[in-house]
Backbone:
């Protein structure tokens, strides 16, 4: 199928292939081999070096090198309490990457968190997951219980003396808790509000102890990297962004769903190679919010959160409601008549579209929209790659 032909599935490698509620099926697909390899054949520093060699960057928005993050938290092993946490508080509109991994391959997360704990010297971990994901939470708890039953969590794992326990903590749906220090505040029972940095979590995180936090997709790559080597992962992608990226493809597209592709693939590859093009023979108008080449450094970001939704619009539908929907998700309430600047990308030509109580007149540059008693000043940045007529 064309939908899978251009994909390279690493983070999603087991989704759809294993029963997420049966640990034996995960083990049958090399599950927990990476953890065994780390505990029996590698030092913690060698594990970190392998992740550094892979070039893996955080998939949660910041794009910080994962191995370097682990290295910062690895000092003074055995002499201070440390924690590992997973950010599963996926809150971007239309995004369901982390949810699919939690529901389809929960043991990949558990194994990776145990590896991270071994690397930095932690013995306790938490998965901070939104309560709106009941199936994911249930399957993750089943997987944790099974891992404990098989001796893959708890004390003396693989007879090596390494101990690691893992628990689930439910978030209340606060978008801000996707930021790691706000997540820590929530884990501690406080209101989820970002802390001033420094100190960083690697220095003073959960209960002011050294802590490492990665998101679900980042962790989902770890076991594959350990089993196949850092060089194999680094061979995929671009010079600055190695490996693959998962995002949601939705909107007026023939074939939507979760897509995992090597970094550096173009928007054309995604929309027409994987997605099969725009529905009903229409022309491509706009996409939110991925750039011409998928790259950790330029995949659309809003307020520190990675925008992993690729919403496709055709040449008939208005892009204004989509822009307003995404804007409204993050906006602070605006008083009547107050101006607000919003950035979004649009085809580089003038469009006249009907609004609610007036007319929207969009063109390249800055413009004003009057809708009832609310006036908003919007900025439209036209770009070549979204403006070209892609076929």
Residues:
């Amino acid at each position: 199928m064309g939908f899978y032909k251009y994909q390279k599935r690493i983070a999603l490698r087991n989704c759809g292939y294993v029963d997420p509620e049966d640990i034996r099926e995960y083990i049958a697909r090399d599950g927990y081999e990476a953890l065994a390899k780390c505990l029996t054949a590698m030092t913690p520093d060698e594990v970190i070096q392998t992740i550094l060699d892979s070039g893996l960057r955080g998939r949660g928005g910041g794009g910080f090198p994962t191995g370097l993050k682990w290295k910062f938290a690895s000092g003074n092993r055995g002499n201070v309490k440390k924690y590992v946490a997973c950010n599963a508080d996926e809150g971007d509109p239309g995004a369901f990457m982390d949810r699919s991994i939690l529901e389809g391959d929960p043991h990949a997360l558990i194994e990776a968190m145990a590896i991270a704990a071994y690397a930095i010297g932690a013995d306790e971990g938490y998965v901070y997951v939104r309560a709106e994901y009941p199936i994911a939470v249930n399957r993750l708890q089943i997987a944790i219980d099974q891992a404990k039953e098989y001796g893959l969590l708890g004390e003396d794992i693989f007879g090596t003396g390494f101990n690691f326990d893992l628990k689930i903590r439910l978030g209340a749906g606060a978008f801000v808790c996707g930021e790691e220090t706000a997540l820590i505040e929530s884990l501690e029972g406080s209101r989820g509000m970002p802390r001033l940095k420094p100190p960083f979590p690697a220095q003073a995180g959960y209960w002011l102890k050294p802590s490492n936090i990665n998101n679900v997709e980042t962790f989902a790559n770890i076991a594959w990297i350990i089993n196949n080597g850092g060089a194999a992962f680094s061979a995929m992608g671009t010079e600055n962004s190695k490996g693959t990226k998962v995002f949601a493809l939705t909107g007026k597209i023939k074939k939507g769903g979760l897509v995992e592709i090597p970094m550096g693939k173009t928007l054309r590859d995604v929309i027409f190679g994987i997605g099969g093009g725009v529905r009903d023979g229409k022309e491509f108008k706009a996409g939110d919010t991925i750039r011409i080449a998928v790259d950790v450094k330029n995949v659309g970001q809003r307020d520190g959160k990675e925008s992993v939704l690729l919403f496709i619009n055709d040449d008939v539908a208005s892009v204004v409601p989509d822009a307003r929907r995404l804007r409204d998700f993050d906006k602070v309430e605006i008083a009547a008549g107050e101006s607000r600047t919003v950035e979004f990308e649009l085809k580089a030509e003038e469009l006249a579209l009907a609004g609610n109580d007036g007319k929207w007149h969009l063109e390249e540059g800055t413009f004003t929209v009057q809708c009832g008693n609310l006036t908003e000043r919007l900025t439209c940045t036209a770009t070549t790659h979204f403006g070209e007529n892609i076929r």
Q: What stands out?
A: Residues 134-149 form the longest helix (16 residues).
